[in-house]
Amino acid sequence: MLNKIYDWVDERLDITPIWRDIADHEVPEHVNPAHHFSAFVYCFGGLTFFITVIQILSGMFLTMYYVPDVENAWKSVYYLQNEVAFGEIVRGMHHWGASLVIVMMFLHTLRVFFTGSYKKPRELNWIVGVLIFCVMLGLGFTGYLLPWDMKALFATKVGIEIAASVPFIGELIKVLLAGDATIIGAQTLTRFFAIHVFFLPAALFALLAAHFIMIRRQGISGPL
Amino acid sequence: MHRGKGMKFVGDSRVKANNRMVNMPKDYSEYPGKTEAFWPDFLLKEWMVGAVFLIGYLLLTVAHPSPLEGPADPTNASYIPLPDWYFLFLYQLLKYAYASGPYNVVGAIVMPGLAIGALMLIPFLDKGPERRPSKRPLPTAFMLLALAAMIFLTWESVVNHDWEAAAKQGEIKEQVDIEIDETAEGYLIFTGEQGKSCIACHGADMQGGAAAPALVGNELTAEEVADVIHNGRGAMPAGQFAGTEEELQVLAEFIASLKAEE
């Protein structure tokens, strides 16, 4: 049955080459923990992606209740945390996932660095990876404000002051992020929400796509 | 590549007919070493690693509910801010003499910028063919140094932060919902000329503020309230009440009557 559906689609769209590109390849011995246990260090990239998927899913569910508005943001998070069925679990996964993804991504970066995997011909993929790192930090920074509680507000005040200390364009960055030259308030919250939910995820998807296409094209780096 | 006459397509599309690749992995003998097919063998193992990881992740989630402090109050000037833990080392860096104040740009921009820039450009700085860490001492040493610095700064930041005060300043304050009888004698004294300095901190709604606790829902007797008004307590100075002793007694009894309902 499944084979017939596959053949029916394949006859019209010729999807077998796509399938081969995604899944049909060999995994070399030196990255397989079944052969060398120390090869578990090659798991960190995959785990980073795994948590990223969880972050996307849990984030989608959070937006069903979250209200990006100074009056209701904190109340909606409080309600989500204390009243909604499994709300505490979904928010908990998003909260802890945000930390775990940084840990896993950092370990992945260190693995690539210490195995020298950024060297020719993989320079571009390394740069894309560092950009993903920056986007993830941006997601962490913008997401921290959204519950609109005390620590969120004051940590963001500090963060925006640091951004404002950039020579020449600091003031512009500050106004772009905060929506106002002096107030951290309603505008800041909606902007951070938009950045956290639309702008940075869009950038992240594009960078991840580039990252994965390059890995499939170049293959994983050889043994040391 | 096959072109032109004799080619068959699916319908009027550009997808070639009768030219499909067989969906079968290459023979293992075409690869050296002990390789393994990604699909489905290796992916199954990755899923098992993912499942084990997910269990740990869920245990963390159920054991430690994600924190939520009280709603943001921009008027609170005494709040000591703290960023998320992975920014702590940057935050700590800004506390040192030559990375803050007039040198703020060094700690906030130059040092993090150099670090990210060097990280981004490492493929062009370290161009040799050697990949083993021991064969390229400079990149290895710089990375280990950066790691040590980040761990040290994070550690310094954690031990120098007053975690008890931080937990206290962020507490969610229960809003006590008690009907205040606005015609009571005690309330008139509170909002009158005698109680000016009361309202300044505790607010006309008696809900308190950044500088003082709420008066509604207190757990004191009238004598204890009178004592606090006379002698002060905590941040509250003594002798703030401007009325007579009788008025003070009425006020104390009124405040003591504002109990939360059981």
From TrEMBL, chain A:
Q: Which domain of life is it from?
A: Bacteria
Provide the Cytochrome b/b6 N-terminal region profile domain boundaries.
5-224
Lipid bilayer topology: Multi-pass membrane protein
Identify which cofactors the protein needs according to its UniProt entry.
heme b; heme c
Q: Where are the transmembrane segments?
A: 39-67, 96-114, 126-146, 193-215
Return the NCBIfam families for the record. Answer: cytb_ExtP, PRK03735.1
Report the PANTHER family cross-referenced here: CYTOCHROME B
State the protein's purpose: Component of the menaquinol:cytochrome c reductase complex.
Listed name of the protein: Menaquinol:cytochrome c reductase cytochrome b subunit
Specify the species. Answer: Ureibacillus chungkukjangi
From TrEMBL, chain B:
User: Does the record bear Magnesium in its keywords?
Assistant: no
Provide the Cytochrome c domain boundaries: 181-259
Tell me the Pfam families matching this sequence.
Cytochrom_B_C, Cytochrome_CBB3
- GO terms for cellular component: membrane
Membrane topology term = Multi-pass membrane protein
The record's keywords, sorted A to Z, are: Electron transport, Heme, Iron, Membrane, Metal-binding, Transmembrane, Transmembrane helix, Transport
Where would you find this protein in the cell? Answer: Membrane
Is Cell wall biogenesis/degradation there in the keyword field?
A: no
Query: By its UniProt entry, which InterPro entries does this protein fall under?
Result: Cyt_b/b6_C, Cyt_b/b6_C_sf, Cyt_c-like_dom, Cyt_c-like_dom_sf, Cytb/b6-like_sf, Cytochrome_c550/c551-like
Membrane spanning stretches: 103-125, 137-155
Tell me which residues make up the Cytochrome b/b6 C-terminal region profile domain.
28-155
A molecular function (GO) term: heme binding
Q: What is this protein called?
A: Cytochrome b/b6/petD-like protein
Q: Which organism is it from?
A: Ureibacillus chungkukjangi
Source species taxonomy: Bacteria, Bacillati, Bacillota, Bacilli, Bacillales
